[in-house]
Design a protein that fits this description.
The structure is a single chain. Helix content is 52%, strand content 13%. It has helices spanning 3-11, 14-20, 23-37, 54-58, 63-73, 102-105, 110-125, 129-147; strands spanning 43-49, 84-90, 95-100, 163-164. The chain is globular and about 50 Å long. The two termini are 23 Å apart.
Length: 165
């Protein structure tokens, strides 16, 4: 086990996570997701997690692997056109992961997602959590609008409200 990582997770309390993403910021992110989803057929799910548990750390669970688990358990894969996108923020690791369903992955390169993650992480390092999250949602919407523009039927299949766990 990486003990430096362990102590970062111990120090990242739910209180600190709520301070970084207070209710007003979470509402603003949810509004941004809802507004941007009108422009494309994708479904964006935004999740913030403060820290991992001791067992997860002991097993060496990576942020990417945790995001994969949440992608499945939250049903992000279960959209009509396979156009679900998970934005996962793991505060203790200062990490952002974006996972896209197979319908999107066939058209959007991983490097484009990584660029959005890097932009968000830079804003988060500067303490601009709400602005960084909304900028990420906007950049994702730009990509999805390019490849999956909104159609006549544009059902909202996943909750727009971000999740803090």
């Amino acid at each position: 086990m990486d003990f430096r990582r362990f102590w970062r997770h111990v120090a990242m309390t739910p209180w600190r996570a709520r301070k970084a993403f207070p209710p007003a910021a979470m509402e603003a992110i949810g509004r941004a997701v809802a507004e941007h989803e009108k422009r494309h057929r994708g479904e964006v799910r935004f999740v913030v997690e403060a820290e991992l548990g001791t067992l997860q750390l002991w097993m060496g669970l990576s942020p990417r692997d945790r995001a994969r688990g949440l992608f499945a358990s939250l049903g992000v894969w279960n959209t009509e056109e396979n156009t679900g996108v998970l934005v996962y923020v793991l505060l203790a690791d200062h990490d952002v992961e974006i996972l896209a369903d197979r319908g999107i992955s066939a058209k959007v390169a991983q490097a484009e997602w990584q660029a959005i993650c890097a932009t968000m992480q830079e804003a988060f390092r500067a303490g601009r959590f709400e602005a960084g999250a909304i900028a990420g949602v906007h950049a994702i919407a730009d990509l999805l609008e390019k490849h999956f523009p909104a159609g006549a039927a544009n059902a909202n299949e996943l909750p727009d409200r971000p999740l803090l766990i």
